[in-house]
Amino acid sequence: MVAGDNGGVGVFKTVFFLAPDPFREPAYTVGLICGFGTVWAWLYFCSAYTGRTLHRNPTLRRLGLGVFLTVAVLKLTNPLHDMYFTTREVTTPFRYLAIDHGLLHWGATGLSYVLAAVGLFMMLELYVQSGYDTRPLGVLTGMLAVPIVVDVAATVTPQLIDVIYAPIGVAIFAVGTMFVFGPRFLAVRSTVQSGVPSIFLDRDGRIRDYAPEATSAFPALAGGAGDRLADVLPEVATAIDTDDRIVSDERGEQTQYYLVSTNDMGVGESKAQVVTLTNVTGIERKRRKLNQREQELAEQNELYRAVIAASFAFVFQIDVDEQAFTFVSPSVEKFLDYSAEEIDGEPIDIVMPDDQTRDLAREYLDQVAGGEKIQVRDFPLANCEGQTVYADIRVVPIYEPSAGDEPKTADDIVGAQAMVWDATERRRREGLISVINRVLRHNVRNKLSVINGYAEYLADDLDGDGASKATRIVETADRLLDLTESAREIEANREQSPELEPVDVVPIVEEGVRKLREQYPEASVTLDSPETAVAESLPRVRTALWELLDNAAKHGGDTPSVEIGVTETDDRIVLTIADDGPGIPESEREVLSNGVEESLVHGQGLGLWLAYWLVRNLDGEIEIPEYERGTTVEIRLPVSATT
Predict the structure, then answer these.
(1) Rounded to 5 degrees, what are φ and ψ at 357?
(2) Is the peptide bond prior to 330 cis by the omega test (within 30 degrees of 0)?
(3) Distance CA 126, CA 189 (A)
(4) 170, 309, 382, 509 — which has fewest CB within 10 A?
(5) pLDDT tens for each residue of 571-600
(6) Looking at residue 419, what DSSP letter applies?
(7) Terminus-to-terminus CA distance in the chain, angstroms?
(8) What angle is formed at CA 19 by the lines to CA 13 and CA 25, rounded to 5 degrees?
């Protein structure tokens, strides 16, 4: 802006000397107006460069415009009053039209010099405040005043032409600040306006200069001019090229943190960079405390999740008034096949298998709403498929946090927190133990009674039917051995949570069929199966399969007929065993269908119990469809995910 106005002055001065006579005075007048406008452009530049707001002050802007217009009008109307300047022709040192300035000119000139001096003061003050080595900039700025001395000298000596020489100083200043010391000139302005420690780097990353405040924060800078920043302050140099621009100063009692920011200065070959170091200690400490707190919360949440995963099937919260779920842990899906989102917000009825259980749950919640803690064993719950599973549940009240440490009452209760343990496996295990104990105790006693009875007969009469009685003793002993063998198999397979694996059940079925034909040659045995059928199971399923095959052949009559089939659905491998016998007794049907042991009559031994527990422990199911003739048993195993 300043250079442009001074360029206009130079153009019109040239016109004054070269143009024909009628155009000389108007050209000189326009040049004077441009020259006076240069002063205001200079003030605007100085105010903006030094970070002041004088150039934005509406009052000062209106005042400056008024003074400029007043002086411009006086210059334009000079032909009417000749109070600004007059002209005369002189011949020394050459012939030209000389200017004799009047009182108005000297008043305007004095005002211009005063305003220019104000701008110079603002510039020099900025140089001092920056802390940089600004001597070259001071010399450049001082060049603006040299032409003023020449202007004054031209008024008293005929050896100099009495024109305005200020454009020469402005040209020197403009060239110096733009092309010679441009980056430093911009760096001074950036440093003072930011008010933070700064470092001036050249295009090669070498330290050209630094503000005094920077050495207070980073003493290693002292004497580092000319060295690479990466060698003097490697942590700062690294921060420039990374996203994490925080560096620390661990000197003193408390660590200080600085934000590293950069600002490119200059253009082309003179390009440089100013690195500012803003003290953000307060903010950074808060951020680190917040990060630490978030980490602690994350660790607590992980610990809470791990506790739930290790100790509970799932946890949930209930609104005791609405009797609906308000929170359910994600682990519920593994236990009930519901996702947490499916249950959250739903009434508790969604997991109740029947009305009786629902009413009992509501009674428990009423007790919790009154401030009691409830713990229930073997509470039935319904999973997503409607199957009943069993859980141990502990429920405690949740109190309003604002209740504080004062004794809490039922009025402070806002919900219920429940922890659920999966009791299904324990029920199976306890049921298995119960069966072994009751059946063995009852059946072994009965068998031993038979043995004892026949032993008495033999003691009384060894002649006659001795051989027959002895045969009966052997048969009874064999049954007892079979019973104990089944008990041994149950004990061997008592593991309740086996790790399943892909198993092709077709070879297992074929092996059972061969064994059945060998032991029961009179039986008619047929098999219908695909080449492969891979289930998610374990090889121990052959024991359950054999118990069912043996039972079908043993109780199918004199010439039993046994049909075995293997089919595959989308999610199940189905093994079907059908015989043409009299049908399975109701007590044994209960064993295979539900695992319920109530009857004290166990004529078939433990084989069916063994089959039931093995299949269930392998995540399978046993079903007995209703048919008019014979018995059909279906074993359903999950299809392997690998297929």
Answers:
(1) -65, -40
(2) no
(3) 8
(4) 309
(5) 999 999 998 877 766 666 666 655 555 443
(6) E
(7) 81
(8) 60
